[in-house]
Amino acid sequence: MPPAFDISIALLHEGMIDKTGLDVTTSLTLNDIQDLARSSKTYGVKNLFIAHPSPHLRKLAHRLQTHWLEGFGSTYNLDRKDAINIVQVVSSLDEAIMNIDIRTGKRPKIIATSAHDGEDRSSYDQIKKEIMAQNNPLLLLLGTGWGMSKELISRADHILKPINGPTEYNHLSVRSACAITLDRLLGH
Predict the structure, then answer these.
(1) pLDDT-derived band of residue 177, with 50, 70 and 90 as boundaries?
(2) Does the predicted model carry a pTM greater than 0.85?
(3) H-only helix segments in 8-134
(4) CB under 8 Å to 2, separation ≥6 — which residues?
(5) What CATH number does the domain containing 145 carry?
(6) What pLDDT digit, counting tens, does each position of 80-118 carry?
(7) Domain count along the chain
(8) Residues 6+ positions from 140 with CB-CB distance below 8 Å
């Protein structure tokens, strides 16, 4: 039975910051696509958008999709094929938003993630209630590099509180952060 909520994820590479605070475009990591797709499928995410401005890197992402959807991978691992089936490769966040708008007839509410705390952060319980209210489709933004630029974060309707462990160290991989976030928002 499909979930009643409508949530998608966008893995972003443009509008990121590097360790010095400069606005950069990060590289695509193929393991991110596979692992995020598996977590997304497990938790009932509608679409996983892989957004990158480079046509060469989008082509590489499409090649990975083809391997799992049509190539050897399509018969080798049906679970992976099922997960990769929800991936859409797009050039930008705006293209992901447009795709959701076309599919649902509504602009999605945007939920940003961040490893940095702030006064304007929403709790996981707050966002979970919004997801279950199913008023609008939601788009969860995941950043790469050292996180999203202030300009990109400012586009969000909500910003989730950071995931914190018991130490001062806080630099999770996007794959780990995605799985934890999905479990907190959609897990039982």
Answers:
(1) very high
(2) yes
(3) 30-42, 55-69, 73-76, 78-84, 93-104, 124-133
(4) 44
(5) 3.40.1280.10
(6) 999 999 999 999 999 999 999 999 999 999 999 999 888
(7) 1
(8) 7, 8, 9, 10, 111, 113, 181, 185
